[in-house]
Design a protein that fits this description.
By secondary structure, the chain is an alpha+beta fold. It is 42% helix and 24% strand. It folds into three domains: 51 residues, no CATH class; 255 residues, Beta-galactosidase, Chain A, domain 5; 241 residues, no CATH class. Strands 9, 10, 11, 12, 13, 14, 15, 16, 17, 18, 19, 20, 21 and 22 form a 14-stranded antiparallel sheet that branches.
Length: 636
């Protein structure tokens, strides 16, 4: 072989080596391939085990064959002929279980039982098959139909700790545990192996008097055989519909989560959604309308592989399907010790805030920015103080409305006086409108501003008080739908202030009516819309007349009509609050006009101001200069 041939073979070998190295799967892909192979192997093992079990059942029923497994001649008990091979059935089962479960074969069979732990607020039933919470009940609450309230449909989804023991993919959902009670509030469950020094232990411990349950999964004596970093916790549940209005309940249900280094976030509340967690995660919460299942880890759930998802359900008994696949921050070779906490309780702002978990109270949507600030530091403190008096919540909302109106009274008075000052300039404004009715609008605007300057009227002074009051109105729009205190509280004809009231309801679809209102008509919404219409009519008389803006007047009266449809399915407590706010505003305007605002005196003050020369403010001067520049530009 000459030198060129040797060089050629070396180059070919090098190219093949580089190609092989380049196309070789990385560690993550190899793990995935191994996972698929192991899963397929487990499926085959389960199939063979099922055939063996079917053959035994057929033998007991007197059959002579089943599938590819047939019975041996009579007199040879527990003997199977599987695919032509004569085997002992019990030996087959044990061999298959040994292949599937490894040293956990001892826990692959057993009897499923339920043990119950409870405190003052919670009752949790733990199934020894899978060591899973089969039932989570809140003792203090009931559904709208007065039945026990469960945080999830019992056994509605998958619950498991999963890990690799060599090539065996082990899941707690397939193991039988023995239970050791820790008083009435805790239980320790153990899945044994063929080695007494090696076992899986899962402990559930309820706090004495709150809504937390500590969970701890430990693989004892298996540090060298299990990769702690590959251990995953999977939980899937279906939320039950517990409230009167299922759609409203469903629209406020989602999966919330928080990275250690960022603010809380959440998945879509209106459609199917999923998310691969991209950072070390402090907590994940399956949030329903008024209740939450939260998973909290002080060490943090790992970003590598963890994911969450939510899917709306269409049947009438459920709201949404929640799922979380969470890995733990563990190094290879470390002890498999996985502690975390479950919050199993109501979405009550004070309760969530007292947990001292970062931003856990933000599961409740109180509004963004200044609206949330108003709720946290104004509305909720007043509401909680009134709640301590143990009044009817209808009375509490009334007193809350009066209290907020009194706090805003100085701004309301200032806005009323400012509107009166502008309205009392109507004779002078009529002259300007008549003079420039066919003329230059820029000159008309300039003349108007000059009139305001001479009279000492600031057209913007009435806007600021109104802008300050708007955050309170929007804050209430977030506060009432999220207030669990109003849940199932009755007032007048409303049987639940946290959802709509109805004086007329129907089943089926009524053309136009069902499109506009759904299947009911809310009386509080009708009264609120009517009071808004009356308030608009009275308030428009107190405002200065705007020329050339007929659409604005139309919109003022169209808005209450729109609210009639928009708020028909919103909480009765919210419509009731807006009704009270409108009635109190009408009374305020009537009282201020009758006893506190002397319009003759204000008119005399305006006339005196117009006779007294005034220096233009810098803002007015700049405005006039801009108008003159625009006028000069138009002449060119």
């Amino acid at each position: 072989m000459d030198r060129n041939s040797i060089i050629g073979f070396v180059l070919i070998a090098a190219i093949l080596g580089v190609y092989t190295w380049y196309t070789m799967p990385n560690a993550e892909e190899q793990a995935r391939i191994q996972y698929v192979q192991d899963s397929l192997a487990n499926v085959e093992i389960q199939r063979q085990a099922k055939e063996a079990e079917q053959a035994l059942k057929a033998k007991e029923a007197g059959s002579t064959s089943t599938g590819t497994a047939t019975l041996a001649p009579a007199g040879m008990d527990s003997i199977l002929v599987v695919n032509g091979d004569t085997l002992n059935a019990d030996s087959v089962r044990r061999a298959l279980e040994g292949q599937r479960f490894g040293i956990f074969q001892a826990s692959s069979t057993g009897k499923a039982e339920e043990v119950v732990i409870e405190n003052e607020r919670l009752q949790v039933a733990i199934n020894t098959y899978g060591a899973r919470p089969a039932l989570i009940r809140l003792k203090e609450y009931q559904t709208y139909h007065k039945t026990p309230l469960y945080l999830a449909d019992p056994d509605s989804g998958n619950y498991e700790f999963r890990f690799f023991l060599g090539k065996n993919d082990i899941s707690t959902k397939d193991l039988h545990f023995t239970a050791e009670m820790l008083g009435t509030t805790g239980v320790r469950l153990k899945a044994a192996t063929t080695d007494p020094a090696k076992f899986l232990r899962i402990t559930y411990q309820l706090d004495t008097a709150n809504y937390f349950m500590d969970v701890r999964a430990e693989l004892v004596g298996l540090e060298d055989e299990v990769d702690a970093g590959s251990t995953v916790f999977n939980w899937e549940i279906s939320g039950l519909s517990n409230e009167k209005y299922r759609k409203g309940e469903q629209d406020k249900s989602s999966v919330y989560y928080k990275y250690f280094s960022a603010d809380r976030e959440y998945l879509s509340e209106t459609s199917e959604d999923s998310k691969k967690l991209e950072g070390k995660t402090n907590w994940v919460a399956f949030k329903q309308d008024f209740f939450t299942i939260g998973l909290v880890s002080a060490e943090g759930f790992a970003s590598n592989g963890s994911e969450i998802a939510i899917t709306p359900l269409t049947d009438s008994a459920h709201t949404k399907h929640y799922s979380a696949k969470l890995f733990f921050e563990k190094e290879r070779g470390a002890k498999v010790d996985l502690p975390f906490r479950m919050y199993l309780g109501p979405n009550h702002y004070g309760t969530l805030r007292r947990t001292e978990i970062a931003q856990f109270d933000k599961i409740i949507d109180l509004g963004w920015g200044i609206f949330g600030w108003m709720n946290k530091w104004l509305v909720i403190p007043i509401f909680n103080w009134l709640d301590g008096w143990k009044w009817s919540y209808g009375i509490i909302i009334l007193v809350l409305t009066i209290a907020i109106k009194l706090l805003l009274m100085p701004l309301t008075y200032k806005n009323f006086v400012s509107s009166a000052r502008m309205r009392l300039l109507k004779p002078e404004m009529d002259v300007i409108n008549e003079k420039y009715k066919d003329g230059d609008m820029l000159k008309k605007q300039q003349a108007t501003m000059d009139l305001y300057r001479k009279a000492g009227v600031n057209p913007a002074s009435g806007c600021l008080p109104m802008l300050v009051q708007m955050p309170v109105l929007f804050a209430m729009f977030k506060f009432f739908p999220s207030s669990i205190e109003l849940r199932q509280e009755k007032f007048l004809w409303a049987d639940d202030l946290s959802t709509y009231d109805s004086i007329i309801s129907w089943v089926g679809d009524i053309p136009l009516l069902s499109f506009a209102f759904g299947n009911h008509i809310s009386l509080f919404t009708i009264l609120m819309a009517a009071s808004t219409m009356i308030y608009t009519a009275i308030n428009s008389k107190q405002m200065p007349q705007q020329q050339g803006m007929p659409s604005m007047k139309l919109m003022m009266y169209l808005f209450p009509v729109m609210m009639l449809f928009f708020m028909n399915s919103l909480p009765a407590g919210l419509s009731y609050y807006y009704l009270l706010a409108n009635v109190i505003s009408i009374l305020q305007m009537t009282v201020m006009k009758s006893w506190f605002v002397n319009e003759d005196k204000i008119r005399a003050e305006l006339l005196l101001n117009m006779k007294t020369p005034k220096k233009k403010s810098k803002w007015q001067q700049r405005l006039e200069d801009m108008q003159k520049q625009q006028q000069a530009t138009r002449r060119r």
